[in-house]
Amino acid sequence: MGTANKILIADRNPRIREFLRRELAAIGHRVRSVNNARDLLKVIYSDNRIDLLILDPDFPYMDAVELAHKIIDRIPQIPVVLHCISGAEDLSGFDGANAVHIEKNGHSVEVLKETIRRLL
């Protein structure tokens, strides 16, 4: 695979973050995770390169549209995988962005891995 891709997982659920981290690290990705919008924005606004963002935008104190605008304004080219329950969030802020929606369910990890492979 060459240089490992850097993936950031942003999800408030610690079990999901850890599960995705293990699954993606096992196939060679470098994975970092955050559990709130504030920490996500710190990473986004830092000088650390991120190749892909896996995001469940269901964070308190910041709605998905506002979060989308902040991410896209800072790094418009980043691929974003919106990993959330279908219909749970207003994802219109990601319209026209380099974003793909994958519904969270018991089988989404394989779809997620395939989507990441295609995007990177």
Low-confidence stretches: none
**Radius of gyration, taken over Cα atoms and rounded to an integer in Å:** 13 Å
Q: What fraction strand?
A: 15-25%
The second-level CATH architecture is 3-Layer(aba) Sandwich
Task: Report the biggest beta sheet as strand number plus sense, adding barrel if it closes.
Answer: 5 strands, parallel
By CATH reckoning, the class would read Alpha Beta
How much helix, percentage-wise, in residues?
Answer: 25-40%
Count, helices = 4
Order of the strands making up the biggest sheet: 2-1-3-4-5
Count of spatially separate domains:
1
Give the end-to-end Cα distance, rounded to a whole number of Å. 11 Å
Report the CATH superfamily: Response regulator
Per CATH, what is the topology?
Rossmann fold
How confident overall, as mean pLDDT?
Answer: 89
**H/E topology pattern:** EHEHEHEEH
Structural class: alpha/beta
Count all strands and give the number. Answer: 5
Outline type: globular
